[in-house]
Amino acid sequence: MSYDNILYDTDGRVATVTLNRPEKLNALSNELRGEMFHALKAAEADAGIAVVIIKGAGRAFSAGYDLQPSPDPNHPHTNDWTGLPDTGTTHPQHYDWSRHAVMGNFIIWELAKPVIGQIHGYCLAGATELASACDLRIIADDCQVGYPPVRAMGTMDAMWAPWHLPQAKAREFAYLGDPHSGADMYRWGWANYALPADDLDEFTMEFAQRMGHIDNHLLMYSKRSVNRAYEIQGYKTAMISG
Length: 242
Fold this sequence. Notes:
This protein is α/β, with parallel strands linked by helices and 242 residues long. It has a single domain (6-239), classed as 2-enoyl-CoA Hydratase, Chain A, domain 1 (Alpha-Beta Complex), CATH 3.90.226.10. The chain is 38% helix and 16% strand. The chain is built from nine helices and nine strands. Helix 1 (30-45) links the parallel strand 2 (14-19) and strand 3. The longest helix has 17 residues, at 216-232. The protein is globular and about 45 Å long. Residues 87-95 have low confidence and may be disordered.
């Protein structure tokens, strides 16, 4: 299937979803998010795919949520709630806005296959939530990661910082949202690897290809086991309490 806001490619057992609105620094519109989730579900259903990479075209991973109104409410992937987990609290169509954002990212959490976030340039606001939802993060050491909206608009939609950062830094993110380098985010444990931006594509693909040698079912069981361990500690409840 063709998409308007993302690119979907496969290389062996690795699928790559590229956020493709470079003129908007890959701002996360409803259309883009819908297409991204559709592509992730397609990769999940493809027995030939073992792992998925999410990355951004152009100068940034993503500058965060697109705050402009959806230009086309009839777009085939706008407000497509297929695959959202049942929280038992409300009908999926009522998740807008922050619940829509958070519950959408749970699709990545629940996906049967590992997802790697390949992060460069800028990863701001809602993009930090998307990246944090990925199983693994590989980041350019000069990337800027921050959440500026907490200074004027509201709290994080998904409260990821306390789960991924030391407490003092989690509080700094929640209170100020100042951007920090990819090297710092690696040092604080948010990213698995930090390296020069020019090496990011090759390193991430080689890393994903290594995972691709593992049986799909074994990867699925490993991911599910790790997920459940965090869920017992209240991970999902924390994410929707922003």
